[in-house]
Amino acid sequence: xxxxxxxxxxxxVWGSFPLFFSLLNHVAPMEVLVQRxxxxxxxxxxxxxxxxxxxxxxxxxxxxxAMAWLLLSGVLIGLNWxxxxxxxxxxxxxxTSLGYFLTPLVSLMLGRILLKETMNRFQAVAGALAAVAVLxxxxxxxxxxxxxxxxxxxxxxxxxxxxxQPVDSLQGLNVEALVLLPVAAIWxxxxxxxxxxxxxxxxxxxxxxxxxxxxVTAVPLLLxxxxxxRLDLTVVGFIMYVNPTMQFLTAVFIFNEPYPPLRLVTFAIxxxxxxxxxxxxxxxxxxxxQAARLV
Length: 295
Description:
The chain is mainly alpha-helical. The chain is 82% helix and 0% strand. The chain has helices at 2-15, 17-22, 29-50, 54-61, 64-89, 93-114, 121-141, 146-164, 169-193, 204-228, 233-239, 242-254, 261-294. The longest helix has 34 residues, at 261-294. The protein starts with a helix and ends with a helix.
């Protein structure tokens, strides 16, 4: 029961991100990204110290192979954050929702193509339906849902990279923020030297929200890590769709985003793919249990 509460809490926080970052719509997306990097680094560093993980953290920093992979994953998660922040600021949360519905299916296809992972027939059908949804969007609306594809692609490749170098989620996020700090510093120096506008410090509310962006980045990761230790990954797979579902409902019923009726067809196809994907996860879990009983 505790694992379920932790998992739902993690995805509830992630699903609330559009509401949180919409409070920063008056701040340039690049500054929100920069502040998020800085404060996420500091927040995770404090937690690492409080949890007495300094020795393993220092060992990670000295591991050149791990640092190389985390540099790449840092770039990917930074791109994902920037696209998401920008999309929220311009009222395109519906597209972020579609992107996160697509993400598990993109990860599935990347695993099959790049890692030669096996796929059961349910997963194959789910991947094919996702491709149909994207093609329908292109034909019916005349353009690719590039926001959705960038979010799904960047996070899908992010997961692929992190799979090559498994690292504790908390320390991984900290190092990813660390490798992005030079970019953040360069942007801040450039803004100062050119007389650009920096909203941090302009008023208390904005400053506190920018500082809080670091905490809201770290908290769901900690909740998810705790949940994953207590739950079967199949259950976690089911719950993951709380996030994009909340984003979809937020876009439609809170932000009142306009959307072409044909986009509902895209979502309908994705929702069918999601159900098929979940059936594939359940079937795989059943087969693993049966194999374990035979051993």
